[in-house]
Amino acid sequence: MQCLAGYSLSKSYIDSDQSIQVLTDATLEVNEADLICITGQSGCGKSTMLHILGLLDAPDAGRVLIRGKEINSVMSEAPRIRNSEIGFVFQFHYLVEDLTAKENVALPMIIAGYSSSIASRHAIELLAKLGLADRQNRYPNQLSGGEQQRVSLARALINNPAIVLADEPTGNLDPKHSTEVWEMILSLNKERGQAFVVVTHDHESAKLATMTYNLANGRLSLMHSDNKSPRSS
Ligand SMILES: Nc1ncnc2c1ncn2[C@@H]1O[C@H](COP(=O)(O)OP(=O)(O)OP(=O)(O)O)[C@@H](O)[C@H]1O
Ligand SMILES: [Mg+2]
Fold first, then answer.
1. How many domains does the chain have?
2. In sequence order, what DSSP letters do the residues of the chain get, joined into one string?
3. Is the minimum distance from the CB of 43 to ligand 1 under 6 angstroms?
4. Residue 132 counted as domain residue
5. Cα of 22 to ligand 1 centre, how many Å?
6. CATH number of the domain to which 31 belongs
7. Which of 67, 84, 174, 206 sits 20 to 30 Å CA-CA off 73?
8. Ligand 2 centre and the CA of 161: distance in Å?
9. Residue of the CA atom closest to atom 17 of ligand 1
């Protein structure tokens, strides 16, 4: 099984002259075909951690290895690696307001160098898979929160990244659409071997994961694993 990413992370924030330690040498390894869920109380640092995993933020100390290569998230190569290897579904979806759903989904593929007609065709296919075929020409403010969430998922998937990081991707969805999103995650994970790291409060869905970690006091603890030998602390 190929190791896609390895992390050991420490991170603190300064708040009114006080330093808040959010991550304390939290370690995680992501292998091909892993479906990792991360749970933890509000404010424990899950989004902070996911942003660092996605090269959107830098740790204060520690290492980020992507395919064995140490990556510094502030270096010039980070955006290219992020666009090609990593798909990111944000907790609060961050769609571009003046682009339609289809254009939002197509954007990472155009940035990767594909023509807009090829990117558009892929975007339409993905939106259809997520039940949004008739919403492709709408702008984000014409979509419900759950629809925006699914557009975000399509945008994260379009470049077929090795790792998809998703911060509460079903947080705004009703049970039916939540089940559909989980089914899509499970099938991509099984069929393509795509790795997922999903932050979720949904303990039922977390049971579908190959590994579930709980984040508390800055560290990850393994709660459940299909694999008998835990790989991280
Ligand atoms: N830019 C920042 N400056 C200062 N403190 C921050 C900053 N971003 C986050 N924090 C603090 O760091 C801690 C972790 O925040 P984070 O957003 O990672 O939590 P979370 O586990 O994702 O929470 P939730 O489940 O509510 O989304 C919180 O106490 C938060 O207030
Ligand atoms: Mg969060």
1. 1
2. --EEEEEEEEEEEEETTEEEEEEEEEEEEEETT-EEEEE--TTSSHHHHHHHHTTSS--SEEEEEETTEE--TTSTTHHHHHHHHEEEE-SS----TTS-HHHHHHHHHHHTT--HHHHHHHHHHHHHHTT-GGGTT--GGGS-HHHHHHHHHHHHHTT--SEEEEESTTTT--HHHHHHHHHHHHHHHHHH--EEEEE-S-HHHHTTSSEEEEEETTEEEEEEESSSS----
3. yes
4. no
5. 8
6. 3.40.50.300
7. 206
8. 22
9. 47
